[in-house]
Known about the structure:
- By secondary structure, the protein is an alpha/beta fold.
- It contains six helices and eight strands.
- It has one domain: P-loop containing nucleotide triphosphate hydrolases (Rossmann fold), CATH 3.40.50.300.
- Helix 2 packs across helix 3 (89-99) and helix 2 (59-72) packs across helix 6.
- The radius of gyration is 17 Å and the shape is globular.
- The model is unreliable at 1-37 and 40-44 (pLDDT under 50).
- The structure holds adenosine-5'-diphosphate and magnesium ion (MG).
Amino acid sequence: MRGKAEVRREEPEKEPTNPKKPTAGETEVKTATVKTEVISSPKAGLSSATIVDFVTHSATQTQKAGTVLGRLLQLGDIILLEGDLGVGKTTFTKGVGQGLLVEGYINSPTFTLVNEYQGRLPLYHLDCYRLESGREALDFGLEEYLYGEGVIIIEWPERIAEVLPTEVLRVKLGYVNDTKRTIRLEPMGTRYVALTAEFKKAAFGA
Ligand SMILES: Nc1ncnc2c1ncn2[C@@H]1O[C@H](COP(=O)(O)OP(=O)(O)O)[C@@H](O)[C@H]1O
Ligand SMILES: [Mg+2]
């Protein structure tokens, strides 16, 4: 079917008047999904079933979406975070770190290029903003991280696109307004199609 995207909107629920603080282990993501719409939109080469689109209404919700993803990650997973400066890539990564049970605070590695964290699996957090080519990333040791002992999450992958593998999970963030962002999970390859399906189930129960 061509043309109009298939759109499923969930009515935003009311903010609880007396919100219960989630206890450890309990999925706080429900809070994140409360005001979040899931929108499936067919795109060339990808069926509507494989892409997950949603909207977050706060940095906390974006972080929680990252946490849901982080819980599902496996050794060798490669996550690309695309989107403009200030859109929420590092915020999302903080959540991924929580989902991977990383202790300590995740900061932007803009000046260090890569930060490494120890969690359930090692997490390599790269920010390629300052790189001009994939060659620079290779010289830096990119492959050690891509094919290392952990999972890798890359901000500004556009900068080094030519040296990245084709099988990845692309996470595209878009700016709507001060507090609202669009997030799209676009899986490339079977591992990431499965991961995206698991994410959709964990985050939205569908
Ligand atoms: N819905 C939202 N999702 C993510 N960040 C948000 C949202 N609303 C506001 N923000 C704010 O936008 C900024 C995102 O910054 P950051 O995560 O460092 O972006 P990036 O890494 O993409 O440059 C933070 O100050 C955050 O509080
Ligand atoms: Mg950042």
